[in-house]
Amino acid sequence: DLRSIDTPSLLTFFYSHCNTVCPVLISAMRNVQTHSLNEGYADEVAFFPTTFDPARDDADRFRAYADEMNVDTDAGNWHFLRPESKDRAKAVVQEQFGVRFDRTEPEDMDMYMFAHSALTFLVNADGYVERAYRSKSPDADQILSDLETVRA
Q1: Which of 14, 78, 123, 150 has the CB geometry, 3.0–4.6 Å to 22, for a possible disulfide?
Q2: Which residue, among 41, 33, 39, 36, has the nearest Cα to 70 in the 3D structure?
């Protein structure tokens, strides 16, 4: 629930086995996180990348993915979120946030992917969405500028 957020936050929706859009979305968030660490406001912003592939994206996978993507999960402001089931992912990600995703049906089901939309939200400290970036490659500089406004 966004209302429980008490610091400006970035949310995006991804799955860790994606090799197209998701790494770009996560990289944009990571670049903002790195800026927050370097500029001393890491405790004033939070990051909530949310998977829509709970079957494969568990805690171990998130740790490996954070390493792959050079995300600092020890900073305390990066929180991978995982709905508990496929149905819950549909309810939260698709119905509440409007991010559509459809699983592919390959012959080798271990290799399934998702066709999905790309969306990143900037949420203010009161839990309201300030900006929605509907881009497959959100501009980190634009996000930083908007974040500075929201933090002020």
Answers
A1: 14
A2: 33
Q: How far apart are CA 81 and CA 53, in angstroms?
A: 11
Residues 41, 45, 50: CA angle, nearest 5 degrees: 145
Sign of CA dihedral 106, 110, 112, 113: negative
Q: Is the pLDDT of residue 3 over 80?
A: no
| Residues near 59 by beta carbon (within 8 Å), at least 6 away in sequence | none
How many residues are present in the chain? 152
Residue 132 and residue 121 in contact, taking contact as beta carbons nearer than 8 Å: yes
Split at pLDDT 50, 70, 90, the class of 111 is confident
- 144: region left, alpha or beta (phi > 0 left; psi from -120 to 50 alpha): alpha
